[in-house]
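User: Structure please.
Assistant: Input sequence and predicted structure:
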Amino acid sequence: MRPHLALSTAVVLGWTAAAIAQNHDAPGFAKPNLVLQQVVEGLPKDDKQSVRVMTASFKPGDKTVHHTHRYPVTVYVLEGAFTLELAGKPPLTVKAGEALVEPPGVSMTGYNRTEGETKVVIFYLSAVDTPFLDPISH
């Protein structure tokens, strides 16, 4: 088994065993809240990977540059709403408490189209020394 799969499997099995072993209504036990589960393609296959967890704040009207990612990117919205425009697809908006996966190799840009600030947490698993994004000039 590859190292990153072994670690992921151990984490999942650990949570599963803990969930089975405990009474979910018992005080003092934390339990995970599944926000998003999605099968993805295009993850790195190297012996080592880089894990990045980033935050970003968007004021009303702020947007990202047009870009692509080399690997899938997961975005979790903490506050406000985040709208993602992927080439060839209708815009997708996720609100606070929701998440989405940005696919690799697709031209995209993200927006805050709300009246207030939007805050997100970004999770990126990539090959070591891979840039977070590749800008696309228009």
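Residues 5-13 have pLDDT under 50 and may be disordered.
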